[in-house]
Design goal:
The complex is a heterodimer.
Chain A (H helix, E strand, L loop, with lengths): L1 H11 L4 H30 L2 H4 L14 H11 L5 H32 L5 H11 L4 H15 L6 H8 L2 H14 L2 H9 L4 H12 L1 H16 L15 H9 L6 H30 L7
Chain B lengths: L1 H16 L2 H11 L1 H28 L2 E2 L7 E2 L3 H9 L1 H33 L3 H16 L6 H5 L7 H8 L13 H14 L4 H12 L2 H9 L5 H12 L1 H15 L3 H8 L11 H11 L3 H26 L5
Antiparallel strand pairs in B: 1-2
Helix pairs in contact in B: 3-16, 5-9, 5-10, 5-13, 5-15, 9-14, 10-13, 13-16, 15-16
């Protein structure tokens, strides 16, 4: 009880009623703006044909139906390559890329954060610099690399660069810095444990929020991977690509395209809902020291 | 046991006699597990991130079509970009407008919303965070904006405008150059509350509560003063990280622009450097020229980061 009272009093510090009201008001206005297109996608996906093409258009649905979803599945079944193949591709790419990224990034992060070898500061600052530009910069030369390696039109062209993404290493290293005490590692080392064993049995369990976050970030990126310049074969294309083909199908597919938008957005949102506290916990150590 | 101790003592003595290089080499051997652990990641990282940047600087001085070996032409690509390529100049202008608006605005909105969200109770905070963050992770759901603003009377916005009699015929939002840029910016901002936003939310949560109490005693009167003199200085590392993410993001909205108004956009009105690069790299295979564009894009982003680092060092002072 005492604890509760303290909490209340700290919250009341420097706060005026007018301020609280305007904070709430602004959050509501912008929240509605943020949510509206998402909600409207769901509404559209539930509209029967006559409500989709109704004037004036309405932002609610009178007779909700799942017709658009069954249309979507019908369209999927008529696609040139079986639709399950697109889904398989996306899952395969997401799982391999995420697994590789989380593993390799964690190994490297542990080495940089906790083993005092020469050069670790330089190696880490390269990672920090690499966060300052996006993949558009490297896209041209990566295309050359891919064709030199013979990886054009293979899964590798998407999976391997995703494994080499610096973001995971950055977040993991920062998290290990703040949440893995050196003393624990030192005593394990004195007991004769190998670095490998320390990493697996001591460090990895301690940084669970961080690798959960890495999994989520990497998975989100790969799950949303659409058309790639490296992939030509229809059999290797991904689920978001196939979905976007349905979306561009024009008037006849307005309902199905809304249904497909709902399906694409649902997976990442559910994943985030389940993992939000872990992600926020990880991000609290994401800061960049200058 | 005694043997080991004497061996240790021996190495202790040796350290003082060693040259710096020899010492480093000894340390490197001692911690070789470290290098083994980071090697797999760093090898891939070098091949797919570091080398591409260096190579694109190199190729930017050549003419290279992937069939014949690159031919060295020094500054010719850059001269052509700035003197001979009107569309590139347009692309630079559009990129500066686009990134110059979306980057800072998205950053400030992230900060503002993160600050406001921090005032809520934990359960409400979780929900509101989801509402604001969801658009950035939902793949290409931004396509829904083409339905909201579609160029016929069944689009929600046009339908509404016609219904209340403001316009007689639907406005062609995504083909009329004067609407495209503002609309694309709004959509980009809508999807931009991503990693930087989460980082700032987390940043607000880790600020030590006792600092606020101390500040209140010191005469901080309202939440603005508290933000400026207590919260922001303590979370400067988060501010920096979020800024880096916002900048990278602001230069990465090419896909959204293409999805909303096609490629090339009507009258090149939303043609950015990203599109120009894609055009020359992936369509025309002029790799040298495209590399010059990539190199410029690289330096623009690094420059923007240096600028923001300077600005952020003034926070709370």
């Amino acid at each position: 009880m005492a604890k509760l009272r303290i909490k209340k009093s700290t919250h009341a510090l420097n706060r005026s009623l007018a301020g609280d009201m305007s904070v709430t008001g602004i959050l509501i206005i912008f929240g509605v703006f943020m949510a509206f297109p998402m909600v409207y996608s769901i509404v559209q996906s539930l509209k029967p044909l006559n409500e989709l093409w109704m004037f004036p258009p309405r932002f609610y649905v009178v007779n909700p139906t799942f017709q658009n979803f069954s249309d979507l599945f019908y369209l999927m079944s008529t696609s040139w390559v079986p639709f399950s193949r697109y889904i398989f591709n996306t899952i395969f790419i997401s799982v391999c890329g995420t697994f590789g990224n989380v593993m390799l990034a964690s190994f490297a992060a542990y080495a940089i954060a906790k083993i005092k070898f020469p050069g670790r500061k330089t190696l880490f600052s390269i990672i920090v610099y690499s966060l300052m530009f996006n993949s558009t910069v490297t896209s041209i030369t990566n295309f050359l690399t891919m064709s030199m390696l013979g990886w054009v039109d293979t899964y590798l062209s998407i999976i391997v660069p995703a494994i080499a993404s610096p973001m995971g290493l950055y977040l993991m290293k920062q998290f290990m810095d703040t949440s893995v005490p050196d003393s624990v590692l030192e005593s394990a080392r004195l007991d004769g444990a190998s670095e490998w064993k320390i990493l697996w049995t001591l460090v990895m369990p301690m940084v669970k929020p961080a690798w959960m976050t890495l999994i989520i970030f990497s998975f989100q990126g790969l799950w949303n991977q659409g058309a790639s310049v490296y992939i030509f074969s229809e059999q290797l294309k991904t689920f978001p690509y196939a979905i976007s083909q349905i979306m561009t199908g024009g008037i006849a597919r307005a309902g199905a395209s809304a249904a497909s938008a709902v399906i694409t957005m649902i997976v990442p949102i559910i994943v985030f809902v389940l993992s939000q506290s872990q992600v926020i916990q990880t991000m609290s150590s994401s800061g960049m020291k200058d | 046991m005694a043997k080991i101790k004497s061996a240790e003592a021996k190495t202790q003595v040796d350290i003082h006699k060693m040259s710096k290089a020899a010492y480093t080499w000894r340390e490197m051997k001692k911690y070789k597990t470290g290098y083994i652990l980071l090697a797999p990641f760093y090898i891939l990282f070098t091949i797919f991130v570091i080398l591409p940047v260096l190579l694109s600087v190199f190729f930017s001085f050549t003419i290279f079509n992937m069939l014949e070996p690159p031919e060295f032409v020094f500054m010719q690509n850059y001269v052509r970009l700035f003197l001979d390529d009107d569309i590139f100049l347009l692309a630079i202008k559009n990129t500066l407008i686009f990134a110059g608006i979306t980057g800072p605005v998205s950053y400030l909105l992230s900060l503002l919303f993160a600050w406001f969200i921090n005032e809520l109770s934990p359960r409400v905070r979780k929900f509101v965070t989801l509402v604001f963050y969801a658009p950035s992770i939902s793949g290409n759901v931004y396509i829904i904006w083409t339905i909201l603003f579609s160029g016929d009377q069944y689009g929600l916005v046009n339908g509404f405008l016609i219904d209340i009699g403001l316009v007689n015929s639907p406005i062609q939002f995504f083909t009329n150059p004067s609407y495209i840029m503002p609309l694309v910016i709004v959509v980009a901002l809508w999807t931009s509350l991503g990693t930087s936003f989460l980082s700032l939310i987390a940043g607000f949560q880790v600020v030590d509560r006792t600092l606020y109490e101390a500040a209140a005693i010191d005469g901080v009167k309202n939440r603005w003063q508290e933000l400026w003199s207590v919260t922001l200085p303590t979370m400067r590392p988060q501010l920096m990280f979020a800024a880096v993410m916002s900048i990278t993001g602001a230069f990465g909205f090419g896909a959204i622009i293409t999805a909303l108004c096609g490629f090339p956009s009507p009258e090149y009105c939303a043609h950015t450097i990203m599109h120009h690069l894609q055009d020359y790299g992936n369509t025309r295979f002029e790799m040298g020229y495209a590399s010059a564009i990539a190199t410029l894009l690289f330096f623009m982003q690094i420059g923007a980061n240096a600028l923001i680092r300077n600005l952020l060092s003034k926070v709370g002072k």
